[in-house]
Amino acid sequence: MYNLQHFEKYSKISGVWDEMYNEDSTIRAHYEKVIEYLSKESPDDLSKKEDLAKRLFMTQGITFTVYNSGEGIEKIFPFDIIPRIITSAEWAFVEKGIKQRLTALNLFLKDIYHNQFIIKDGIVPIDIIYSCPHFLREMYQLNVPYDIYVHIAGIDLIRDNDGTFYVLEDNLRTPSGVSYMLENREITKRLFPDLIPNCGVRSVIEYPSILYKNLMSLSPRQISNPTIVLLSPGIYNSAYFEHTTLARLMGVELVEGRDLVVSNHIVYMKTTTGLQQVDVIYRRVDDEFLDPLVFNPSSILGVAGIMGAYRKGNVAIVNAIGNGVADDKATYIYVPDMIRYYLNEEPLLKNVPTHRLSNKDEREYVFANIDKMVVKKTNESGGYGMLMGHAASEKEIEDYKREILKDPRNFIAQPTISLSAAPCYIQGSLQPRRIDLRPYALCGPDGIEIVPGGLTRVALKEGSLVVNSSQGGGSKDTWVLS
Amino acid sequence: MLSRVAASFYWLSRYIERSDGILRMLKINYNASQDSVQEFTWAPVLRIFSGHDEDLEAKLESNSRAVLKYMITDKTNPNSILTIITLARENARSVQEHIPKDLWQCLNEYYHTVKATNFDVRVKREDPIGLLDELIKQVMLYYGTAEITMERGQSRSFMNIGKYLERAIQSIDILDVKFGPINNNPNLLTDITYWKYLLLSIGGYELYLKTYRDGLEAQNVIEQVILNNDFPRSVIYSVNNIQRYFDRLRNNSNANTYREISFDIGKLQSNIKYSSVKSISEVGLHQFLTLVKDDLYNIGNSLNEYYFANS
């Protein structure tokens, strides 16, 4: 038994899966070594580590900039020093489940932009697809290399009160946060020397090289050194740090829309020696802004004519355009059916039960039980435009209901899932806070690879269930044990 | 190298060089303002850096603290140290993966020093010389770090072209502005303090004393600032360096555009090299300086068009 100062205040939240404690309040085996290590540290030492972490983030410029009245304010993404630990058995299951899901989603995207068998066979209703703003007719009958649409997926997982993993969201467009997975590990190495090898934590360091290998393999020109670029919206984007980090780690050029130009359906970058052909674009610019000739005509983030080059097969774009139709929250409901339909397998990872509000019966059920529901917009992410039924006021609920009735297709509702909790070091003691998990899956011609780890986001506010950084969330290093 | 990246290096360096020039000029002029032997005025400094705003000149010319505030922390002034270092840093940020971490941290520190919330108050209350020295030190730190950490490649060439182009333009501006009032007031031609402060503000006083034994004379000042190969702030020294670093881009360039700009630089270099104080006086100093400045601007424009892909 450990008798520790920092654990005194730790009181498990009842009815919530705790990553560290068993039901009977004994420590789970995979947390023991960390607890033993922490028991030798005084609260003072831990506070020092916390300060060190902050300083490391700041001096290394691992920041995002919030622009306010013309001035940039540099902020760090809050980081909790206590790692989140996943056992090798848990990971094996998660890994298998994500591979299965991603395989089906890639098949779905190919199908939906070609023959649409899944609609003809009545598995996915046609109105869901055609009413989705991210279903892009420009992609119809367009062949992408190796039939891979989703090269990088950040599938968000949560755990219910019995520890079961659920998929909360499939992020198949431009999932972000992977640089924090890498940086958090670097920082943790400094904070807890020797602990990582002692615990047998699996490494995440391979991520950039796997991604690079996949990008290389997509080059339309069969040459030994294709030009690969990372297309960023520029320094004012909040994820700019991530873009530079990935570009540096892969050794590819970081470009902005204004660096590229399309001539005769070939994409070039403007260099000091003239134009250089670009073969593969890892873009961190959303579909809508990618090509002003085809999508949003006022966008200056993209490149005029890039869609034409893409259609001709002269350039590979990662992730493919039009993926939004597959990670739309209304399509999400049908992912388990897709897995059965395309793979003839039972889904391993469960979906959170989801109600479509365009269906009258389901809508009435949701309205009657709104205090137990989370209502979301189908095409929003980042925790925006959400209604948490249990925490909202009468008026907020009424206003939101009116919104829903205006356009029910745009809303779904899910029962409030009580996210699992993990210990966090907050104000000098360990306290439980709710967490999720976003592993990053990379899909290339050789199959799907997932580095053992991911981003654990944590709702740092006491009692909060929202982990998004825009809503006061932070992150933790994520350990997968071997 | 990506055109945008090259442009960022070039501008990063121009901004830093400009901040260096401004800081030194402020320091020396402030010093002069404390020497109340003659009528001191900030007008020339303001003329160079405020874009010929006469109302502003009239309002500020005799108020040192107000000038310092305007030139250091005023956000509305496109040439204040704060604006310049912010722009320099934005340029560096957009090429972060191309510059050494040390250099990035240096810039960050310089930026945070000026940006600090109490800096405004310090400009008002503290000893300005000490404050300016603190900032000059940041610039020196930047130059030292750049010197020992930057890879000897294209990026450094673009940085140095920017640096020397900016420096040449500054020296020309200072000389031009200082010689302006002479037509109305020929007595200045023999006013020793007047020339002394000019030389001090571009760090050329000591060299002058070593070179010319016969006291301070306008002709000699012109010679040193334009034609002295060994004076690091002279126009010819700067143009020589533009030539030197541009030459290093030869192998990484499109042959035609390289030849065109190389020709322009060579022509300008020869023009200055084969000038003398006498020939300059024949053309007229103001006229001569204007022509040289136009040539420098042209070189900048050509770089912009051919290398930075902004036409």
Automatic annotation (TrEMBL), chain A:
Domain called Circularly permuted ATP-grasp type: residue spans: 83-459
Gene3D superfamilies linked to this entry: 3.30.1490.270, 3.40.50.11290
Pfam families in alphabetical order: CP_ATPgrasp_2
Protein name in the entry: Circularly permuted type 2 ATP-grasp protein
Organism, as annotated: Mucilaginibacter segetis
Automatic annotation (TrEMBL), chain B:
Pfam families xref list: Alpha-E
DUF403 domain sequence ranges: 1-308
InterPro entries, per database record: ATP-dep_Glu-Cys_Ligase-2 (IPR051680), DUF403 (IPR007296)
PANTHER family (UniProt xref): BLR5612 PROTEIN (PTHR34595), SLL1039 PROTEIN (PTHR34595:SF7)
Protein name: Alpha-E domain-containing protein
